[in-house]
């Protein structure tokens, strides 16, 4: 395995951070769940103590050797198989596998398979425009402005 490939592998902390940012792992208002909220959910799932400090340490890379029960709880709370945390697959492959679990993503990918390069470029432009609009909406929400649309 080359040096470059080694650097593209995600740490446990990076995987937790990546999963924490996914829309289905956010609060209903779209904001990130706090480490306290995640720790509480993990404690409920595992039936074992799971402190906010411990959750923060795992997410920041201060600790990287959780117990099997804690890893199982993290996986359940964050919506992945426990093997996701143990897998040594390069980051790009893991991210793609996570995306392809979503039925909507699979439907878009299946339809776009036979499109021309120009059609695919148009779709990417459209998605980037949607992302910018959503980011602006979230920024407005974070600043206390209420926007609908």
TrEMBL record:
<protein>
    <submittedName>
        <fullName>XRE family transcriptional regulator</fullName>
    </submittedName>
</protein>
<dbReference type="GO" id="GO:0003677">
    <property type="term" value="F:DNA binding"/>
</dbReference>
<feature type="domain" description="HTH cro/C1-type">
    <location>
        <begin position="60"/>
        <end position="85"/>
    </location>
</feature>
<dbReference type="InterPro" id="IPR001387">
    <property type="entry name" value="Cro/C1-type_HTH"/>
</dbReference>
<dbReference type="InterPro" id="IPR010982">
    <property type="entry name" value="Lambda_DNA-bd_dom_sf"/>
</dbReference>
């Amino acid at each position: 395995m080359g040096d470059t490939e080694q650097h593209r592998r995600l740490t446990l902390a990076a995987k937790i951070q990546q999963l924490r940012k996914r829309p289905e792992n956010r609060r209903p208002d779209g904001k990130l769940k706090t480490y306290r909220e995640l720790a509480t959910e993990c404690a409920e799932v595992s039936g074992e103590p799971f402190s906010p400090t411990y959750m923060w340490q795992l997410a920041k890379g201060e600790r990287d050797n959780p117990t099997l029960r804690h890893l199982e709880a993290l996986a359940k709370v964050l919506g992945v198989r426990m093997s996701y945390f143990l897998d040594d697959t390069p980051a790009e492959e893991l991210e793609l596998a996570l995306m392809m679990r979503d039925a909507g993503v699979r439907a878009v990918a299946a339809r776009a398979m036979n499109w021309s390069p120009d059609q695919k470029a148009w779709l990417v432009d459209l998605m980037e425009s949607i992302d910018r609009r959503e980011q602006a909406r979230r920024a407005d929400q974070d600043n206390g402005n209420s926007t609908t649309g």
